[in-house]
Amino acid sequence: MAITVEQIDLWLTVRSEHQRLEFKEAKTQYSNEKLYKYCVAIANEAGGHLVLGVTDKLPRKVVGSQAFNNPTDMAAKIFQAIGFRVDIEEVAHPDGRVVIFTIPSRPKGTAYHYGGAYLMRAGEELVPMSEDTLRKIFSEGQPSWLENIAKSDLSAQEVVQLLDTQTYFDLLNLNYPTQQEGVIARLLDEHLIEATSNGYAILNIGALLLAKNLKQFSSEVSRKAARVVVYAGESKLETKSDITGEKGYAVGFKGLVGYVMSQLPQNEVIENAIRKDVKLVPEVVIRELLANALIHQDLDLGGTSPVVEIFSNRVEISNPGEPIVPVERFIDGYQSRNEKVADIMRRFGICEEKSSGIDRVVESAEFLQLPAPDFLVSYKRTVVVIHGPREFRDMDGSDRIRACYQHCVLQWVLRKQMTNQTLRKRFGVSEGSGNKISQIITAAVEQALIKNDPNAPDSKRYARYIPIWA
After folding, report:
1. Same domain as 200, residue 54
2. Where in the sequence is the domain holding 352, given as residue range(s)?
């Protein structure tokens, strides 16, 4: 279907670029090599449109492009360079010529590359695909780790003995069937078990979520059990306890959260002239981050599991696998690594199948005026560090800039904009600290984390800020 002026005008209303839509001004020319790379990256991300002659910054408008005046010739060059066809259309928009490259999605189980580099987009940048992403792509169509058999040749009674089916029905607010056949039928329908010639087999996903004791299954499953390590101080020199859970993630989640909370250090605060003890980190934060770590881990990585490490001044929660969403987009972005696990855990009421969990973590940190959570990527692991209470004057520059960026993104998600005033409120400081807050904002702008809202009044006093990628 030919792209029309009306379609381009509709694209102009899009608030931000997304997986299937990329804008470039390219008023006079555009690099062939860069075009090839973008075509590869967009194809690897389910296909979409690369639009030349439209501003990629807000306010979005048509500026016209003189690039690629011979679309037929260029289409042939693209095919020769990257090995797949890209359709090119020219649209005579009233405000200028627009060139649209319609890029197909990669075939299932394969990924495209240019010059040996398998590319994808990360914000405005083109980056090599991670080993984890490529492995997922090349294994498409093959049984996933979750579909592997954890234990086979079981009777219906043995299935019920191994899995906590009572908790399964409780979490779904369903009446427990009066007959064992009803229990088995439900597990079959959920694809947590499957029928075999010799009875039933429990799939890895069934064991991982519902096992009464993960140790009763193979090491492929049992090694996924969550581990909680408590240290005596701020370093790993002295370990107080090191406990590995035994229950499946769903049936053991409440107990896991409770155990972690019981191990957190206490802080004494004064509220309404009354002293009281509070935990280092609020339960809502622990709950959301634990759910994320369990659900979004890379299950194909063997011999490793989600880990909670509790120090006297912070909590670190990590899971196997590098994130598939860039850490700087954790607040506004969402993509589930294990969709089946996420779906079931959502129906159990353990998580929400969207990015609101991280939003809630950041909101809690702001409400309690804690240091901003630190989202990190280490070797084949994703780590979240939650710091205990720290006064504004005790936060270092990186703490303040990180909090500034996260506050700006959170405001954007809420369809608002950050200002000096909102950031002062986030840090809990008075109006007299306005200059210090301005310095933090300036540093965040210089580090290309945030930018001035182009729709704001041209006044320093009324300046508003949005994320750099918005």
Report:
1. no
2. 227-387
